[in-house]
Amino acid sequence: MSTPTIQLKLSQLTSDLAKGYTRLRSQDQGWGSIEEKYAMEAWEVERIFLHPALKDKQTKAFRFELVLDEEVGANLSEFAAEIKAPVQATPKPTPAPVSIVKVPAKEVETDFSALL
């Protein structure tokens, strides 16, 4: 007597991942795992996910949804209003003019050995 073969479609597994199913029971986030759903052993699940079409697929659903409460929402509205307000640019003070003195070439010393 041989072991019955179970046929799984790739679309089934990707759909399960999109619904929040994890690969293994130990990774379950509350929606269940593929290991439990199809009564598989952990090594069987790992082997199935070596298939190129499933190799990098992960659970798509998340346990948490971020929701802005009213207090935070009000602060964000005020912040957004500040961002939209025109910026008042203050002029930078003009630096004092710098005078440039040209020295004739004859007066420039070219022997730098005295500096060493």
Summarize the structure.
By secondary structure, the chain is mainly α. The protein is built from four helices and no strands.
Question: Any overview of this molecule?
Answer:
The protein has 116 residues and is mainly α. It has a domain of 39 residues. 30% of the residues lie in helices and 0% in strands. The protein is elongated and about 110 Å long. 8% of the residues are buried. The mean pLDDT is 75.
Helical segment count: 4
Mean pLDDT: 75
Radius of gyration over all CA atoms, rounded? 36 Å
Derived structural class? mainly alpha
Count the beta strands.
0
**What is the share of helical residues?**
25-40%
Instruction: Give the overall silhouette.
Output: elongated
CA-CA gap between termini: 98 Å
Most strands sheet: none
Q: Which H/E pattern describes the elements? A: HHHH
The low-confidence runs, each spanning 5 or more residues with pLDDT under 50, are: none
Residues in β-strands, percent: under 5%
Which oligomeric state applies? single chain
Strand-helix topology:
Blueprint: H1 10-18, H2 34-37, H3 42-48, H4 70-84
Q: What would the keywords be for this entry?
A:
mainly alpha; 4 helices; 30% helix
